[in-house]
Automatic annotation (TrEMBL):
Pfam families: TGT. Substrate binds at D125, A192. This is tRNA-guanine(15) transglycosylase. One of its GO terms (cellular component) is cytoplasm. GO terms for molecular function: pentosyltransferase activity; zinc ion binding. Pathway: tRNA modification; archaeosine-tRNA biosynthesis. Zn(2+) binds at C275, C277, C280. Belongs to the archaeosine tRNA-ribosyltransferase family. It comes from Methanolacinia petrolearia (strain DSM 11571 / OCM 486 / SEBR 4847).
Length: 490
């Protein structure tokens, strides 16, 4: 295949990967800056010097350009743009969705993209906006799938991207994910999500992406079309999105908007420039506001911030701390936080992709006990055989001092995970976890793990020592088991 995707590390559903496009290999997660040949605030060659390995431009704009069409056909995109990395082209579907019908058929745009040397080619898919009814979105999905199949007759060497559409209807997104995987496409953009992000509907974004991911091949490289602001990259990466494209760095600069990983500021509101990039360290806020080159400088800053966030996400995936980064980023906006809480509901889907061991588990509040590390630990407690008798030491006391020397198997207890054999004290997640003082939410989570252990060992007589402060929580979480006499207190 001309496009190949190799996953080298995982955390949650996020992946570090190597995307091979022809004879070029680029690392993911990956940012594709959007380039308009007519408006280049930062040139492709400058982006390449900043470490950009791939970019995206629009085939429709090139096809209608009196200045660039013939040059692109004769010289190729790489020569025209002065860029040696991977170049992806969009089909013109965006223009079609915004401005109505465009004078460009599916087969024409696919053939044109091939002719100008695009390395990742997108068919003329239909991006169904959120207000589409199920019937309307299904009709548009049918057309998109028909066009993907038509394009595969022209681009049969693996360079075709297969967009996953379906509007906000999760059953259609699941169907689309399954169908593009059946066609053996490696590069699969999830489209029509820009309206959700523009209206801060991150909860719906999570539903759409997780639905599509549930049926897509795990070997597919997933491009989240139009996800351009760094504040939501971590959330998207946690759902398994590998590629992002951004025109925001330039569009925001045009509006005097200064990007940070936590959100954006109007330049006029800033007295300081809270960034370590070259622009911010060589200009004061007042100098930037008055600069004749303000738009370009802001675009450079915005690009630096965007690239830095991609690097930060790659590092978090490598060391197994992506959950902490998601938590930090999503607390910067209430709607992002809604998306974070929605993602936590998909524990079964997330657990299947998450790694077994990580660098640490850092407790950051009640959301932490809904994370995959905790839910997976609870599930695995069913594998522990506790024999005829077992003593649970809630407060970490020495079992010999409880008056229960003949209590059988001795297990310790650490919220939010619950019971664990002493042999696992130095292993992940129990040993590599940082916790504040135990509160009721943490303890209640640990009791859910205790419940799994007790239910999984019906022939064991359990004795619980300690934890007087939270015994009402134990009674609440294990009420039915207490009525059946499955455990007693000391």
């Amino acid at each position: 295949m001309a496009i190949n995707f190799e996953i080298t590390q995982k955390d949650i559903m996020g992946r570090l990967g190597k995307l091979r496009v022809g004879d070029k290999t680029i690392k993911t997660p990956l940012l594709l800056p959007v380039i308009n040949p007519h408006i280049q605030i930062i040139t492709p060659s400058e982006l390449e010097k900043m470490g950009v390995e791939a970019l995206i431009t629009n085939a429709y704009i090139f096809s209608k350009s009196s200045e660039f069409r013939e040059r692109a056909l004769n010289e190729g995109l790489h020569s025209v743009l002065g860029f040696s990395g991977v170049i992806m082209t969009d089909s013109g579907a965006f223009q079609q969705s915004v401005y109505g019908d465009v004078d460009f058929s599916n087969s024409e745009t696919v053939a044109f993209q091939r002719a100008i040397g695009s390395e990742i080619i997108v068919p003329m898919d239909i991006a169904s906006p959120p207000d589409r009814t199920h019937e309307e979105a299904e009709d548009e999905l049918n057309i998109t799938m028909q066009r993907i199949r038509e394009a595969l007759q022209i681009i049969d060497d693996g360079h075709l991207a297969a967009p996953v559409q379906g509007g906000i209807h999760t059953d259609l997104r699941k169907r689309a994910g399954h169908e593009v995987s059946e066609l053996n496409n490696i590069f699969c953009p999830i489209g029509a999500v820009v309206p959700l992000m523009e209206s801060y509907r991150y909860k719906d974004l999570v539903k759409v992406v997780m639905a599509a991911k549930s049926t897509m091949s795990p070997s597919a490289c997933v491009h989240l079309f139009g996800a351009g602001h760094p504040s939501m990259f971590a959330l998207a990466a946690a759902m398994g999105c590998d590629v992002f494209d951004s025109a925001a760095y330039a569009l925001y600069a045009r509006e005097d908007r200064y990007m940070t990983p936590q959100g954006s500021y109007k330049l006029a509101e800033l007295n300081e420039l809270p960034c370590a990039c070259e622009v911010c360290r060589t200009h004061t806020a007042e100098e930037l506001k008055k600069s004749e080159d303000k738009e370009r400088l802001l675009a450079l800053h915005n690009m630096h911030v965007t690239l830095a966030e991609i690097a930060r996400i790659r590092q978090a995936i490598l060391e197994g701390t992506l959950w902490e980064l998601v938590d930090e980023r999503c607390r910067n906006h209430p709607r992002l936080y809604d998306g974070y809480l929605e993602l936590l509901k998909y524990k079964d889907q997330l657990e299947k992709s998450d790694r077994i061991t990580k660098r640490r588990f850092f407790y950051r509040g009640k959301e932490s006990y809904m994370r995959t590390e905790v839910t997976a630990y609870h599930r695995n407690l069913s594998r522990i055989d506790t024999g005829d008798k077992a003593l649970i030491l809630i407060d970490g006391k020495d079992g010999k001092k409880t008056g229960q020397e003949d209590a059988g198997e001795v297990l310790l207890f650490k919220p939010p995970f619950g019971p664990y054999p002493p042999e696992l004290k130095e292993t992940f997640p129990v040993g590599q976890s940082e916790m504040p003082e135990t509160d009721e939410d943490m303890f209640r989570s640990g009791c859910r793990g205790l419940k799994v252990l007790v239910e999984s060992n019906p022939n064991t007589k359990f004795t619980i020592f300690g934890g007087e402060e939270f015994r009402h929580v134990i009674d609440d979480e294990l009420a039915e088991l207490k009525e059946k006499g499955r455990f007693s207190y000391v």
